[in-house]
């Protein structure tokens, strides 16, 4: 019996979700069909790809991890062949899996998906949200094709395309003595309480920015939520360092935040679309890159 593309697709989906049931739901087929296809594949290859655990679902064996990379490459090449055949019709179709850094999601993701739906109606985008480490892990494991993230903490083997660049600013309570200024030096915030956006890599970046002025504050409050940090600031608990600027100054509870530029020579932060360096850049990936660049340019 030859290995079929259906078997490869079912195996890759089961590996991505570590669940036969989850794979079946995603593929809109019966669970028995996925289980049978994977079992046939294992028998044909002559090795076990999954350890099946009742309480924890599936675990890839070392052989399964290696086979997953090859299976993804085969399916990826097939998709590229199909994409090339569609070039004359100028259509981009099929599925693209995208990971998005959680704090970027509300600023860019809804608009991106709306524009992609309008410009490429046959393109199906599947999205997961994660922190920087989660985006990298999803890329390297093959769970996603692209990751929309900041260019920080990305491991070797990841290629990036810059779509935007942000300069950090200080978020202040509206009644703060420096809130009305066009800009400030970080040294003017010495000994004031600091509110930390507490995410992997982000926390190190924030402290390194403050270190430009010789500041090493102890965070009064920490949160992994961008909006929670802003609300702490609006209620007078301290200042914070942020990158993304909302279109208004209001917080969820009706407060306001003053956004003041930093005069010190602080580093900028790139927003990127990342992919595994050895992965072919498909027309679907190029469609996402081009659409996002257009969205950022229109925003100004």
Helix-strand blueprint:
Layout: H1 5-17, H2 20-27, H3 31-45, E1 50-53, E2 57-60, H4 62-85, E3 94-101, H5 105-119, E4 123-130, H6 132-141, E5 146-150, E6 158-166, E7 169-172, E8 183-184, E9 194-197, H7 202-211, E10 219-223, H8 226-234, E11 240-242, E12 258-262, E13 269-276, H9 283-299
Parallel strand pairs: 3-4, 3-5, 8-12, 9-10
Antiparallel strand pairs: 1-2, 5-13, 6-13, 7-11, 7-12
Helix pairs in contact: 1-2, 1-3, 1-4, 2-3, 5-9
Structure in words:
There is one protein chain. Strand 9, helix 7 and strand 10 form a beta-alpha-beta unit. The longest helix is centred in the first third of the chain and has 24 residues, at 62-85. The chain has 300 residues and is of the alpha/beta class. The protein is built from nine helices and 13 strands. The strands form four sheets. It has a five-stranded mixed beta sheet with strand order 4-3-5-13-6, with helices on both faces. Strands 8-12-7-11 form a four-stranded mixed beta sheet, with helices on one face. It is 40% helix and 23% strand. Helix 1 (5-17) packs across helix 2, helix 2 (20-27) packs across helix 3 and helix 5 crosses helix 9 (283-299). The mean pLDDT is 89. The relative contact order is 0.14.
